[in-house]
Amino acid sequence: MDKEQSLPSQTTQHTPLDELTVAECFDRLKLISQKGTYKDVSLWLGRNPNDYANWKRSQKLPFAEIIRKLLQERVSLNWFFAPGYTLHDPQYAYNQTDYIKYSVAEEERKRRIEFLKAHKKTEPLLKPYGLENDEQCLALMLDVYFSTTDKWIEKSQALELVAKALSIKPATKE
Question: pLDDT tens, 125-140?
Fold first, then answer.
């Protein structure tokens, strides 16, 4: 009898996944693929026929290839990897408040990033006009940044004009 041919099991004894050997796994794959040898199963998985010997020696299964092929053939992973076990789909509760909390947090994060971008663009414009320590000017510049759309005037140009206007000292009446 060929080494690669294995006798069909007379009893329906199931092997837990952690105890699944390469030979047992390939016996199951032979049933699904309708291939006669382990080398043919390796080819069916899209691998080199000699890879089976390496897997057997290292006692490591090529799970990625096996799962990909089983899904391609529309074979239940539960049936293949856990025969004899009654498995259930995981239960999870979709909680709308969690989604809302996430959405609010995400929105706040986006606003902070947008504020930092605005601050990064406006702050350098204040220094040339001697307005770097004036919080009122900074607040006004940030308002201009957020209220300006680039349709009529570019943000950078609007900010420059406002900074220039803020730096002009009003004429004092004598």
Answer: 878 878 777 788 888 8
